[in-house]
Write a structure and sequence with these properties.
about 375 residues; alpha+beta; Rieske Iron-sulfur Protein; 2 domains; 17 strands
């Protein structure tokens, strides 16, 4: 417990640099938390599917004949060949190794010469399902078969998103961009989860989008909720209509632990961050931008370019420098700036975030050791 004489210190460097901790996170945290798979608009018709990876596993989402979306481990139950690659559409899911085939609900349909096997029960064989949720059009999966619903993890977020982006269910991806960063995923997530550095490092964001003096971040379940007012209209770097919606003049973000964030720019413009951890020293950040029905939008395109050329590019240099510094023998974890009033110059959100990070690594590490 931190006191006036003993301030709360940042996490030890090993949490960001030790490959063993990354392996613990991969087996534990990544496999037992809600992770972004893709957007529901990628699956328009029965048989549409797409593959993705998380926690060292290959998985895929597919729409069944009733229009429901299922998620499965991407592995045939015969002799473990992967079933599908990339994305596409199929009436049945047929393994390319021995042609065992499954219906869109995962049930085995047929296989060459399986009737020759005495006692073979086709109905006993099914692909292994993964819990999946459609969260405002965004598909999330969890490898924990007993996972608590997303609304328990992130209370209030679904309704708040719908209020800030009333047409969120009609949004479609306009562009997704992969941004590699040479740092631990937690370094990048921490950078996103405070604005203590914004005024000094993000001039365009701090003077052309938000009013930093109004910036605040508060925990909301396992969500970190960012709120701030937009800049004066004459200072905004793109045009907005304040009369369009009750929330048109605010910036809001919902960071969903551990690796996804919904971000609504002034003007009710939705974009997303999705972190894909590669190893202890590398992460890929997917930046998504959306428009109604995926229709071309000059404003969204311009804002996406502005974001990449300013905030994103600036953050890459920051997080990669931090990762190098964490490996220095001269680094000692310093005290977090914990302002009781919170606000833009406080790191109280980092204290919350690091408590989740520490718990995930230490708890799972203890379990593995036991």
């Amino acid at each position: 417990m931190a006191t006036d004489m003993n301030p709360l210190l940042s996490l030890d460097a090993r949490y960001y640099t030790d490959p063993a901790i990354f392996e613990i996170e991969s087996r534990g945290l990544f496999a037992s938390s809600w992770q972004f798979a893709g957007h529901a608009s990628q699956l328009q018709r029965p048989g549409d599917y797409f593959t993705f990876e998380m926690a060292g596993e290959s998985l895929f989402c597919v729409m069944d004949r009733d229009g429901a979306i299922n998620a499965f481990y991407n592995v045939c139950q015969h002799r473990a060949h992967q079933l599908v690659q990339g994305s596409g559409r199929a009436n049945v899911l047929t393994c390319p190794y021995h042609a065992w085939s499954y219906d869109l609900g995962g049930q085995l349909r047929a296989g060459p010469n399986i009737k020759a096997v005495e006692g073979f029960r086709r109905e006993d064989i099914c692909l292994t399902k993964v819990p999946i949720e459609n969260f405002c059009g965004f598909l999330f999966v969890n490898l924990d078969p007993d996972a608590r619903p997303m609304d328990e993890w992130f209370p209030g977020v679904r309704s708040e998103l719908a209020a800030h982006v009333p047409q969120i269910e009609q949004l479609r991806p306009l562009e997704w961009v992969e941004i590699p960063e040479t740092c631990n995923w937690k370094v990048s997530v921490e950078n996103y989860s405070e604005c203590y550095h914004c005024t000094l490092n993000h001039e365009t964001f701090a003077t052309g989008i938000v009013r930093p003096e109004t910036y605040d971040i508060q925990p909301q379940g396992h969500c970190l909720r960012h709120t701030t007012e937009c800049q004066n209209l004459d200072a905004m770097s793109y045009p907005i209509d304040l009369s369009a919606n009750d929330y048109a003049g605010v910036y809001s973000s919902w960071f969903l632990w551990p690796m996804f964030s919904f971000q609504v720019y002034p003007g009710n413009l939705l974009n997303t961050y999705h972190w894909r951890a590669v190893d202890a020293d590398h992460v890929i950040v997917w930046r998504g931008w959306y428009s109604i029905d995926g229709v071309e939008s000059e404003t969204v395109r311009q804002l996406a370019v502005q974001d990449r050329e300013t905030t994103v590019e600036e953050d890459i240099h920051l997080v990669e420098s931090v990762q190098r510094g964490l490996k220095s023998r001269g680094y000692r974890p310093g005290p977090l700036v914990m302002d009781p009033a919170c606000g833009v110059n406080s790191e109280h959100s980092i204290a919350v975030l690091q408590s989740w990070m520490r718990d995930a690594a230490d708890r799972m590490g203890t379990t593995a050791a036991g």
